User: Fold this.
Amino acid sequence: MPKAPPPLWRATLATVAAIAVAMGLRIALLGLSGSIGVTQAFFPAMILVTLYTGWRWGVAPLVAGAVFAWWLWGGGQGEGLDESEIATLVLFVVSGAITIVVAEGLRIALVSLALARRLQIKAELRLEMTQTAAGVGPWEWDLLNNELQLSPAARKNLGVTTASPLDLAGLLDLVHPDDRVMMAARIREAVKTGPLYEVEYRLIGAPGGERWIHGRGEVYRDAEGRATKVLGVNFDVTTRRQAEESLRESEARFRSLADSAPALMWISGEDGVRIFVNAAYVDFAGVTFEDALILDWRSRLHADDLQVILKAQISGEASRKPFSLEGRYRRFDGEMRWLKSFSQPRHGPGQVFNGFIGIAFDFTDTKEAEAKLTNLNELLADRVQEALSERDVAQAALTQSQKLEAIGQLTGGVAHDFNNLLTVIIGALDVLQRNPQDETRRERMVSAAQAAARRGEKLTQHLLAFARRQPLHPEICRIDAMIVDSESLLRRAIGEGLTLSLDLQAGERTTLTDSGQFEAALLNMVVNARDATPPGGAIAILSAAVDLAEPRGELPAGRYLRVAVRDTGAGMDAKTMERAFEPFYTTKPVGKGTGLGLSQVYGFARQSGGEVTIDSTVGEGTTVAMTLPVREAFSSVEVLSVAPPATRATAHVLLVEDDVEVGDLIEAMLDELGHMVSRAASADQALAITRADPTLALVITDVMMPGGKSGVDLAITLSHERPDLPILLSSGYAGQELVRAHETSWPLLRKPYALDALARAMADAWDRRPPNQAVG
Assistant:
């Protein structure tokens, strides 16, 4: 039966067919006589048409039946109808109308019933889908027959695959043995006394680990109060149980951590009522845990702090933002203690405010110390002049003590190294003196003495570099190329027990530096890394371009390059890093290091206009990095020529040297070169000789001189009085005078030096003399 009238053609066809069948039945059974049964055959037609197409089409058989009766009774032949025929016709029309109304009502009821059935099926399907998706499984337990009917979802939750009904014993077999007694007791209790049944239990041998099932049902009873059946549902609550267990573990860890803390801790709800306090909180209050949750701290506050604390607390809690309080509270033993608390808001999902979590520290000792310090300051205010004087004396003594300590450390380190060197030199000379004719021994002893002297020269240069006093001989150098050139030396330095890798990214960047000092600094960095790295470790040399848009420390903004040595050694602690650049400070065993390695690196980097940094983690390794400025051009600095010395005729040389032994040695060297030598021990004495002797062809003067005038001062005076007289400066340690010496046009010969170096320096000085002067 359609919900709405069918299409017009179908309604018309159905109506015409019904009327034709009704008329055909009447004619077939009773003929065309106008006696009985004229309209009876049209009632089924009205009912069928009304049910199929609706009451509007059901009127058509009614009209057709009335017309058909009128025609049979003679109306078609022009005969009138008698009273009985008219009454019959009226009765037919009334009965037909009633029939159509009843049929229409029946049609509406049937359509509504069909619609309700379809809605019921959809609702049941949705319910089943919802239960399946939610894991809810309905079940019914027939207590009289002990049969348990399970829905597919309920079977899935229990892990039951067969469709056959279960009894109570079969259900209990699925339950974990530890939960069976409890579950059976709950069932008996519900059947005996309660209308409701609810239990949670574990399944035995559940796939994927332990599974929990929650069962809930309602007991139905007959008129006599006897339980007949139980209707209920079950659902899997494993995830919830696991979450609860995880939450319990988390709460237990938090409680253990909180109870072990020496500070007072608490958690409050949205209403401000405390829901947790730790052991320190309970101990401070001297009450039970339950009483501590409801303790009114206003009764414990110092009267002077009460109003301030209450006002700040109300304001802080109303803001729902972090706030802090500070005041005096009475401890359980009656002693007033200073507490400083910090409260932080708690938020749940969606940033919903859940209350505060707080912590308070007892800082009474700090307060008392502050009070004592304040009293002490007030007491000292009356003696400020005396205190200041004593402080100045103590500061001076401390400064002097620090100086003496530094001098002692420096002297000890220098004495240790130089004593070793002098032992070699003195021993070699002693052997030479005792065996002057032994050629082989003389060669070996001379080589040993020269090697020790050169080591002493390098040690002095390292010390001067740390003090930023050693002059460098800079040149434009491409760092990556210099590192590559030094690779073989560095690999030999670290040995075979460690691996060395290069990661050079500085590219074409160059810097103005002394190549020898740079190589020495790099070697010191690598040796330090080697000594700190156990066998099997790795050392890496890295370079990179660095651009500073803003100043960093003492480095101005600009272009730099960075050279770093990284190792996988033991690393340094903070104390070691603070002293790493101190001269003679070392963590190596006695005899394994001088403590000058990183100090030389520091002095070289600072003298080159850069910086050196250390990044280290104990147990992971250390990275020492030099940052040097990029230079592409520079003003030339006077350096000594490395060309072979030119052959010179005998000349008259004035040697200005205050150290008698050094002067004797240099005089001997000049005599070896074939020159005549005059001696002066001061600048004033040298001026007197030059003014009196016009035959002087060269002045060799030490930079540091006694009497208040340096060798530079002497050279300046001579350049005015005798501008044609060549001058050669010489120095081992010149301090600020070294800077003045480099600012002049005279060559500088660094001590110590050998005979060939002296000859080359003299040749260089003569090469700079005016063209009209000759050497005689």
Remarks:
- The first strand starts at residue 136 and ends at 142.
- The first helix runs from residue 8 to 30.
- The two ends are 144 Å apart (CA to CA).
